[in-house]
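Summary for the steering committee. One of the milestones for this cycle was to obtain a three-dimensional model of the protein with iron/sulfur cluster bound, which we needed before selecting residues for the alanine scan. The sequence and ligand used are listed below.
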Amino acid sequence: MQMNAIDFEKYELLQDEVCAQRIVAAKQKLGKRTVILAHHYQRADVYQHADLTGDSLKLSYLAAQTDADYLVFCGVHFMAEVADILSSSEQVVILPDLSAGCSMADMANLAKVERAWRELAEVIDPDALITPVTYINSSADLKAFCGEHGGIVCTSSNATKILQWSFAQREKVLFFPDQHLGRWSGHQMGLSLEEMPVWDFDEPMGGLTPEQIDKAKILLWKGHCSVHQMFQPQHILRFRNQHPDGLVISHPECSFEVCKASDFVGSTEYIINTIREAEPGTRWLVGTELNLVGRIAEEFKSQGKMIQFMSPMVCMCSTMARIDPQHLAWSLENLVDGRVVNQIKVPEREAKLARLALEKMLAVSK
Ligand code: 13P
Ligand code: SF4
């Protein structure tokens, strides 16, 4: 049963500390029937309540493995959809605030991808020659599109492996929605920039000539993350001038120039593990979301590691931050009363096809 807005209004003005106590109490009452999953970008006052944490790939495995009845997902909409698709049909996935979306995921939609496929069919046979690859940061219907067309899903921690698999199937890839992850991963495989033109979905034929399409190995959808685009090569240059021994690590959603100027590039889980395993006394510049960087700066201080945020600006995933203690308390206390609010349920036909593409990814990335 869905609660109405008036019910949430009672939580809106609750202080964070009060919410924290009520979340702990609700969790105790719910016991093992409920599990809270949180992405690494989640704000500290929510992350502290998580039973399971991870990057998108790890959270996908965890969601597929848990036998809890209720999965309360503290992340963004596409992550909750993945949890629903990979969990059993009896399990219920809850996103405490439905407006927690991903602006990058919104840069591609089914109508535009289908149009691209139709336009490509004027030049080549896409079903014979192109593997569609969607970054996990995309809606379930795009994952279903990939499932239906022999394609696959990737995350930031397995993109190169997934591209290798994709090229073993067909000679080209249509990669959406993040051009930066696609470009960096293609570059890691030795592809040139000319072999990876951008598909501008607002232009007829993606703004490309038939010759460009013919020569392309990866067609990069013109999408990006508004958080990661804030990091600039000059931030790295300034850091290196100040700290010649310092190390730079970035998320592959950063621009090609930032990735190239970094010492290490990888997913949120990779970033945490790399710094955790580094020598005590090392200094790091980190190009990813602020909540995560602030958390590890604090956590690894005791190991003598100095961790600096890459941008002078505040770069936060403001949509993920919509999952606040008030919404978490609201959804958990409703569950205690036997009410499910904000359930994420992917329609069965779509879920079936999306599951194909997701399970292929999980198998390939093992
Ligand atoms: P990860 O796969 O590293 O968790 O990244 C997901 C994401 O949305 C980064 O912006
Ligand atoms: Fe989406 Fe960017 Fe937020 Fe990641 S950081 S969830 S890509 S908006």
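Key point for the committee: DSSP finds 17 helices and 13 strands in the chain.
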